[in-house]
Amino acid sequence: MSDIKVSDLPGVGRSTSYKLSTMGLQTCLDLQQVPLSKLQAEFGVKSGEALYKHCRGEDTKKLVFGQVRKSVSAEVNYGIRFQNQSEADTFLEELSREVHNRLEEVKMKTRIVTLKLMIKAKDAPAESAKFLGHGVCDQISRSSPLQIATSDLDSIIREVKSLSRQLNIDPTELRGIGIQLTRLEGEKSVRPSANALDKFLRP
C-alpha cells in the first residue's frame, strides 16, 4: 500500500486529491502518518475515516453477492441521421433485436419497455461540432407497462414502435435512441408434474 498514490484510493476525486496534495500527501505512506483526528477535521468525520482506513488497505463495506439485475438496455447516440420514418423504424427494429439479445443472455423477461430519444435542440446548429455527433439535444422518454412479463422479440418491437408513434418526433431531428427493459423477472422453466407424465405414458 505504501507506494500507491492517494489519488488512486476509492472515493478520492479531483478536489480531495488536490487538497491532499496541498497538504504534502502524495502516497498512502504519507497519508498513514496523519492522525485520524486531523483527517476528520480536514475532510469531515466519514470522509476522514474512509481516507484513514483506505490508505491502510481497510474497507468495512459488506460484499453483496448475487444481486438481481434490474434492467437491460441498448443506446446509440452517434451517427443517428434519418431521412424518413421508414429508416427510423428499421433502426428501432435493429436496436430492439440488440436489447432482446441482452435480455436473452441474462435469461429474464421484462414488464416495462422504455423508449428514450435525443432530439436536436431548437437553437442547435444543423450539424454538431463532432462529425455525426448528437450535439446539443433535448431528451424525452416514454414507458409502456406490459400486462405480462415477456421476452418475445416481436412484442418488444411492437411496443417500441408504438412508443415512437406516441412521441411523434420528426425522424430527421433524432440524434440518439435508447431502449430500456425494466421490472425484469427470471425465466421459469415449466416441468410436467409426475401425474402429467403418468397420464401421458399411460396406454
Automatic annotation (TrEMBL):
Annotated InterPro entries: DNA/RNA_pol_sf, DNA_pol_Y-fam_lit_finger_sf, DNA_pol_Y-fam_little_finger, IMS_HHH_1
Pfam families attached to this UniProt entry: IMS_C (PF11799), IMS_HHH_1 (PF21999)
Family: Belongs to the DNA polymerase type-Y family.
Ranges for domain DNA polymerase IV/DNA polymerase iota-like thumb: 8-59
UniProt keyword Nucleotidyltransferase present: yes
UniProt-listed GO biological process terms: DNA repair; error-free translesion synthesis; error-prone translesion synthesis
A GO molecular function held by the record: damaged DNA binding
Source organism: Cuerna arida
Protein name in the entry: DNA repair protein REV1
Alphabetic keyword roster: DNA damage, DNA repair, DNA synthesis, DNA-binding, Magnesium, Metal-binding, Nucleotidyltransferase, Nucleus, Transferase
